Amino acid sequence: MLRNFHCLVPLIYALVVVGSASEAEENASNPLAAINNTDIRYQYFDLARGADRQDAFVDGAYMLRPDLKLKYELHYNSTNATGERFNGFEKTSFKLIYFPSQKPLNDTWSVKSALGLEWILDFGDPDEGIGTGSDQIAPFGGFAFANTNTGLTLIPLVQHFASYNGSTDVSQTAMRLIALQPFGDGYWVKADIKAPYDWENDAWPATAEFQIGKNLSPGIALYADVLVGIGADRPYDQGAGIGLRFNY
Question: Is the pTM of this model over 0.85?
Answer without folding.
Answer: yes
